[in-house]
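G., the chain you wanted modeled:
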Amino acid sequence: MPIRRAEYKDMARIFQIYDIARHFMAENGNPDQWGDTYPSEKIISDDLKKKQLYVIEEKTVTAVFALMTEPEPDYSYIEGKWISDGKYATIHRVACDGSGKGIVRMITETFFPVYGNIRCDTHADNLPMQKSLEKNGFIKCGIIYTSYGSPRIAYQKIE
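Predicted structure as tokens:
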């Protein structure tokens, strides 16, 4: 499935996918990571404006994620140690509609050759994401805290 930058025409579908993902997480023991409203319309809109929002699409958009190339402020402090402090890209807000598998693999295969150093974080209760990251070569580095104080397991994959 091809990955492309999201466009304004994708917004309704992107909101649907995030809604599906929130329900999936809540039903599978992870109700707190995104709650009922994350990511907000403003966050998604900002990601789109900054050209850091991507979709995976075959005949329809099935997944969405953000890929940032600026340093992630939440990653400045870690309980543990990053593998490398060099320039990195960050994957955030990965969600799918449940129709496909291998979303993290597709993201990694597309962007790891470009950046060679990718970081990601996830909630302790998000076992599917932890499993996907580890399956795709990401190493658990420690715990970071979001800007609102919530702990997240931090991962990094580097050449």
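The first helix runs from residue 11 to 27.

Shout if anything looks off.
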